[in-house]
Every structure is written in C-alpha cells, then in structure tokens.
Write a structure and sequence with these properties.
The structure is a single chain. This protein has one domain. Helix content is 0%, strand content 41%. A three-stranded antiparallel beta sheet has the order 6-1-8, with no helix packed on it. Strand 3 and strand 4 form a beta hairpin.
Length: 112
C-alpha cells in the first residue's frame, strides 16, 4: 500500500490548493494508465478524464496545523481506492491568495 500525506506550510488561503475526487464518483472509464518518463525512469500513472458525474472537494483554508492523509495505492484490488487528486489555480476565488508552499510524503506500507 502507498499512504500519502500533504501539508500546507504557507498561510491560508493558498493560490493552488489540493483537490480530491470522491472515489465513489469515479467510473472505470474515467482513468487511463500512461507511461511517464522522469529522467531515466519510466513509471505508470493514472490520468483522469473529465466526467461531470465526478465530485471534487478541496481545502482552501488549510493551516499549518492540518494535514491530509490518503491512500494512493493498494495491491488488494478490492481495497484500491481511486484517490484522484490535483492542485488547481484558485486565484479567481481568492485574488490575494498566498503562493502555496507545501510538502508531500509517500510511505510504502508492507503487510506480512
């Protein structure tokens, strides 16, 4: 399993907050696996297609004492949540938003 964390270090509101899609609203055809080349490494990523049935949520006012924990991957097919997430430009809603400074952590979890 891959557990992921995201933490805003800049004061709210941030210009590019993190958004999450409700996994129950993601259809199997919404996600496409692509090969992504980064330096000398190739990895597989899922890319989302727009679907008006998707339900997206975001946290525009995250403070330094909050963080988000979510499951990014699980090898058990029945437990593999569709954790679609992305940052987006939110300066129309908050014209004076601070530039986002954040940190993300990914943790590999093994069960024996």
């Amino acid at each position: 399993m891959i557990a992921q964390t995201w933490h805003a270090l800049s004061p709210p509101p941030q210009d590019c907050p993190l958004a999450f899609c409700d996994g129950a609203s993601v259809h199997d055809t919404d996600s496409v696996v692509v090969n992504y080349r980064f330096f000398n490494t190739t990895t597989k990523l899922s890319v989302m297609h727009f679907n008006p049935a998707q339900r997206w949520y975001y946290f525009p006012e995250m403070t330094a004492d909050e963080f988000i924990l979510f499951k990014g991957y699980d090898s058990e097919v029945c437990c593999n949540a569709k954790a679609a997430h992305a940052a987006f430009d939110n300066r129309r809603a908050y014209p004076n938003a601070k530039p986002r400074v954040s940190v993300e952590g990914r943790f590999l979890v093994y069960f024996a």
